[in-house]
From TrEMBL, chains A, B:
Binds 1 Ca(2+) cation per subunit. Seen in 1 crystal structure, it is not clear if it is physiologically important. Homodimer, may be a subunit of the RNA degradosome. Its main location: cytoplasm. Substrate binds at A224, S225, H226, H356, V357, S358, G359, H360. Its cofactor is Ca(2+); Zn(2+). The gene is rnj. This is Ribonuclease J. Its EC number is 3.1.-.-. Residues 13-207 form the Metallo-beta-lactamase domain.
Amino acid sequence: MRVVALGGIGEVGRNMTVFEYDGRMLIVDCGVLFPEDDQPGVDLILPDFRAIEDRIDEVEGLVLTHGHEDHIGAVPFLLRLRPDLPIYGSRFTNALLAAKTREHRQRPKLIEVREGERRRVGAFDLEFFAVNHSIPDALAVAIRTPAGVVLHTGDIKLDQLPLDGRLTDLAGFSRLGDEGVDLFCVDSTNAEVPGFVTPERDIGPVLDDVIRRVGQRVIVACFASHVHRVQQVLAAAQRHGRRVAFVGRSMVRNMGIAAELGLLEVPEGLLVDMDQASTLPESKVLFVSTGSQGEPLSALSRMARGEHRQISIRAGDTVVLASSMIPGNETAVFGVVNGLTRLGANVVHQGNAKVHVSGHASAGELLYLYNAVRPSNVMPVHGEWKHLRANGELAVRTGVSPENVVIAEDGVVVDLVDGKASRTGRVEVGHVYVDGLSVGDVGESTLSDRLVLGEGGFIAITVVVDSSTGRAVSSPTISGRGFSDDPKALDSVVPLVEMELARTESEGITDTHRIAQAVRRVVGRWVADTYRRRPMIVPTVIPV
Amino acid sequence: MRVVALGGIGEVGRNMTVFEYDGRMLIVDCGVLFPEDDQPGVDLILPDFRAIEDRIDEVEGLVLTHGHEDHIGAVPFLLRLRPDLPIYGSRFTNALLAAKTREHRQRPKLIEVREGERRRVGAFDLEFFAVNHSIPDALAVAIRTPAGVVLHTGDIKLDQLPLDGRLTDLAGFSRLGDEGVDLFCVDSTNAEVPGFVTPERDIGPVLDDVIRRVGQRVIVACFASHVHRVQQVLAAAQRHGRRVAFVGRSMVRNMGIAAELGLLEVPEGLLVDMDQASTLPESKVLFVSTGSQGEPLSALSRMARGEHRQISIRAGDTVVLASSMIPGNETAVFGVVNGLTRLGANVVHQGNAKVHVSGHASAGELLYLYNAVRPSNVMPVHGEWKHLRANGELAVRTGVSPENVVIAEDGVVVDLVDGKASRTGRVEVGHVYVDGLSVGDVGESTLSDRLVLGEGGFIAITVVVDSSTGRAVSSPTISGRGFSDDPKALDSVVPLVEMELARTESEGITDTHRIAQAVRRVVGRWVADTYRRRPMIVPTVIPV
C-alpha cells in the first residue's frame, strides 16, 4: 500500500491524503488552505492534484472525515476533474458539501455513511468510527487492504462529556488495534499542548455567567460550523430571556442545516431575524455572529469600526469571542477587540474567560489513542513540522519504535511493505492558488511581483521613439503609483532619463528592448540613491 | 498643566508624551512604532511632531525613561527640528542613544541622570526613580510644577529579586504619594494579565537545564538589549564549559556597550568571535543571536532556511527562543520554529519551557503601584485600548474614582486644573512614515495604492494617439505585472481596447485624459467579468 499526502502535512490546511493499493486509489479529505502574508491577493490554496489527475479514473472514491473547509473546501475543484467521483461522508458533512457544490453549480454523487458502518469501496474495505471534534458528525476511517490496515483519525479529540453524547469510539479503536493497525495517521494539531482539552460542556456555565450580568446587547461570535458552541449560546440566551438572531451568511446557512438535521435544537420561538431583533429591547436580544477571526468584511469587524448598518456598539454592550485565534489572525482579531473596546464594549475572549476549547486532542488524549490502537507504524498528519515532530515523540513514548514513525511532508511517498512503512520517494507538490475565478494562473512569479509592488509600488516610464533612428519623439512620461504622496517626487529623474535617451540615440540604438533596459537602469539607480527604496521600474518604449 | 501624548496611547510603540506648563514644554520619550500589514513597505512610524514643531524652542528638554526603540528610536528625527535639544537619560540609555545618533551623524546634547536625583529643567522640577524592566538602567520620572505633580512610570515591572539588585523604588513612590501625586501615567502593557511576572532570575536554572543536556550546538536568541537575559546565558554557558559568540550586529554592539559600562559581567576568556567559534567542537560553543522575532534577514531566520554561511543546523542542535512573541510576529516566528524543526533542531521556546518573562508589570504589580502612589488622577499609557481600559479598571479597584481615570488616545489634550485631570481637546496626530531615506512623503494615498498593487498587481495600457484627430497611431501596448503567470492572460482584452479607441476617435475625442478614462473603464469591466479580480488599471495616453 502506498500513501501520499497532497496537502496537510507540514502545514495546517488543505488536507488531502491518497491511499493506493493494486493500482486503485482512495482519497481521504480534500480541503483548502488559507493564504498567508507572502501570498497576497490569493483567495484559497488547493492541494496539488497533478499526481493524480492523469489517473483520476482509478480513484474509487473520496472519503470526507468532517465538514470543515480545510477538509472539504477543495472538493468542487476536484470534481472539475471528475464530476461523478463517489463521495462518502456523514449526514452533516454531506449537507455542508451539498450547499457548497450548489454554489459551484455541481451535483456530486454523495453517499451517506455513519459510525459503525463497514463498506467496501472498490479495492478498499472501509470502516467508520465516531470521533468528536468542533463540528458534529465527524468520522475516523479505517482502510483495510490485503497489504495492511490503516486508521486515519481525521480531526479528533476525546471529549469525555460531549454535548451530544457521541463519544470518540475508543473501544472501536482498541478492537481494531487487537486486529492490528499497520499504519496510524494521527491529527497533530495540538500535540505540543500538554494535558487534556476541557470538555465543551464546561463553556456553558461561563457563557451563562457572562450573559446574566449584561443589561444591554450581547453579541457572541464563533465559527459558523460550531453547532455545539451555538447550542450552548442558545441555551444561555433562553435562560436569560433573550431572543437570538444569527448574523452572517454562513452562520444562518449552517445553523439552518444543523437544525433541519436535528443536530441543533432550537427552542420554539427563540429565533428572530435581524429586523425583528432591532425592534426588541437591548436586554432581550442576543446576536450570534461570524467574524471571530477578525475577517475585515464580517459583521463583527464592521461593528468594531462603527460601520455596521443595524448594530452600533456603545458602552455597556458585551461581545464574546467564543473562538480560538488561528495563527496569523492575531493582528486582525486584536484590531477588532480594540475597536470594540474603544466604543465602550466589554469584550470577553479566551484570554480572559474560558469561552473556547480546542477541537483537537492535546498530548494527554493522543497518548490514549496510541495506547488503544497500538500501531506498528505512525504517520503524524495535520500540522506544521513542530506539531508533527511532537506527535511522533508521543507515539515513541507509548512504545512505537522511532524508526516506525514516518514524518512525511506533502508529496512524500510512503510505502507500507511487509508491515513496515517507509519513505520511498516524492511526487511534485506545489501551491495551487485560486484568485477570483481562475485556478493556477497566479503562480510564484505573480506573487513575487505583488510582493515587490506591495512594498514599494512602481515607477512607469513611457517613451515613444522613432523606430528608424531611436530618437525620442516626445519627452518621456514618468509616473509612480504606491511610491510617494509627493507629486514632485519624480521630477528630478526626468532630465536623467532624457540624457540617457540622448545617449542611446547617439549610439544608434533603435532596439526598444535595449532602450527600455537603459532607462530601467538609470531610474533604478536614481531611486536607490535618492530614496533608498526599491519600487518596480516599468519602462515602456513604443516605436512609431 | 497640560498633557498630550503624540504617540503610544491606543497603540504599542512610538511613546512620546508632552507636558506643558506656563508655555514651557517637557517631553518624555520619543520612540518609533513598527508597521503592520496594512502599512506595507514602511520602515518605521514616528510620533507626529506637528503639534510641537512650531514651538520646538519652548521645549526645555527630553527625558528618556530607557533605551528601547519604542522610547528612543525617533530621537534622531526630533533632533532634525532642534539639534541642541537637551536630552536627559541614564548612563545605559544615553550610551544606546549615542550609538544610534552616531549612525545619523548627530551629536546630541546628552545629560546623564540617575535614580534618586532631583534636577530642575526650566519650569519643571524632575525627580528620577529606579524601575526595573527588560533593559538595565530604566527610570521613572516625577515632574513637579506649581500646577501639580505628575509621576510617569515609563515601562516598569516590580521584580522583587532583580538580577542586578536594582529594585523598582516603591518606597520612593510611596514618599511621593505622601506628598500627593496629581496625575499618574502608568504602563498598561500587561494590565490584562492577572497576577505577577516571574522573576527574571528564575530563567537561569531553566536555561542551565536545557544547555546541560545538549551534546551539540546551542543557539539562544533573545532581544539585543536584554542584558540580564544574556547575563544568565553567559553564566549557564560557563558552567557547562561552552565559549560564547554573539551573532547579529545589534547584539554585538549592545553587549559591548553593556560590558563597557559594567552592566554585563563577562568572565575572562568566555567570548569568542564567529571565526574562533567555528574552530571549536560543537559541544564547546554557544551562540547568542538576534532574530527572536522571526525577522527574515536575521541570522536565526537564515539558519532556519538553511542559508546561514557559518551555521548549518542539523539533528541534535538546540535553539532556545528566550523571548516573547510581539503580536503580529507570530507567523514569522512560527515559520522560523518550523524551519529549524524541519532541519532536526530541538526548539525550546516560551510555549514549552519558562525561558522568557515579560518586562511589564502584570495586574498584581500594578495594584502595588496604585496603592503606593495613591494618585488623584490616573492616565494609562503604553497600550492599545484593551490594555488602557484594563489598567483604568485596576486603578478604580484601588480606590481611584472612575471620573478621575482619563483614557486619552494619541492627540487628546488632558488638562490638570485644580487637581482634576480632564480631556479638553484634541490636536491632530497622524502616522508619520519613514520609508528608506525620506520621512513623510509616503502617506495614506501611497499606502492604499500599495495595498491594491500588492493584492492584485496592475494592468498597464499604453496608447499613442495623434493629438489632432485622437486616432491611435499604433496598436495599444497592454501588459500586466503581479496579475498572472499566464503570458496570454490579457490577450482577449486587446480587441476591446481597440474597439474603444475606434469609438473615441469616431466621436472626435482628442483629450488624452478622456481617452484614458474610457480605456480604464473597458479594461476594468473586462477584468472584473473575466477574472473577478481588481488589479490597478493604469492607462497612459501619449499624444504625438
